[in-house]
Amino acid sequence: MAxxxxxxxxxxxIYRLPLNAIxxxxxxxxxxxxxxxxxxxxxxxxxxxxxxxxxxAMYALGANWLGQIVLFGFTLALxxxxxxxxxxxxxxxxxxxxxxxxRRSSQxxxxxxxxxxxxxxxxxxxxxxx
Length: 130
Prior knowledge:
The chain is mainly α. The chain has four helices and no strands.
């Protein structure tokens, strides 16, 4: 027995994570992103309460191309986290554990998050007169 090599577990370079596992990890990451986004929202509220000059400076950060990408990412994280959270509510109730249902709900989470993000930004663009 001492001379026999023990089998090695598959490593991440060999083993392909299922979509559900990737979405679970992403759900946690978006939770952290949204917590950081809440700090940004508070900073914007403080800037708005501090006067027009402070709010103008904060607005300028969000108005440039990098700020727009960050805001788009926050929007996508919000809708993704919300969609995945709804699926978790169904799982907590005991529904949706079948492999095919879980696979389809994973695809639905991605689709819903992307569609809602694009719709939000399309409405914001049309309202702003851009």
